């Protein structure tokens, strides 16, 4: 385990994910802890999740608005009230200058102390974590944190708009092959599930969701040495300040 900056020394957290519901599967219990501690949390969702869902009679053209509404409600359930959507296409997310610029813009606007995002490294032991969009969102977020957001000469058009350089102090990578920090989410797991249930369009068998997640996050807690019955979300934390 590594030493992280205490939440008492953090003012703002930016969460960057590829799809609506990614943050809720990976980190909603942690986010509930952050907001309860008084931290300001902002979500930036790269795509509108157009490839998600299970109902064939729902027109694909309606999916983006449905998924945005679901993510906004899910965020509210864990105390987050600022959700930003880049509007890119699910399944087509690429690491390029446009995406890095967009995330650099958000970082300079929000000026977060901590960025929580998806791992840019594939986890071969659990391939579902490593959707190509997840990897792309994580890699672009890392590039935005270092070096773009802190470099006053990167993307000079942002400086011309009045968005000054900003140094993020710490990154938390969710879904990384290696865990060096866990958050005990036993007390916030009900909020996590409430956030996940907000994504109604994504759960054809909602009754099976909680038992599966309790088992998975129970394994994370046990591996970290937490008491039996506890649940934890795991991260690889990197100092970037």
Q: What is the CA–CA distance across the termini? A: 19 Å
Shape annotation = globular
Category by helix and strand content: alpha/beta
- Low-confidence runs: none
Question: What Rg is obtained from the alpha carbons, in whole angstroms?
Answer: 17 Å
Strand line-up in the sheet with most strands = 3-2-1-4-5-7-6
Can you give the helix content as a percent range? Answer: 25-40%
Put simply, the count of helices is: 7
Give the biggest sheet: 7 strands, mixed
Characterise this structure.
With 241 residues, this protein is α/β, with parallel strands linked by helices. Helix content is 38%, strand content 18%. The protein contains seven helices and seven strands. It has a seven-stranded mixed beta sheet with strand order 3-2-1-4-5-7-6, with helices on both faces. Strand 1 (12-17), helix 1 and strand 2 (40-47) form a beta-alpha-beta unit. Helix 1 (22-36) crosses helix 6 (189-197) and helix 3 (97-110) crosses helix 4 (132-149).
Structure summarized in a few sentences:
By secondary structure, this protein is an alpha/beta fold. Helices cover 38% and strands 18% of the residues.
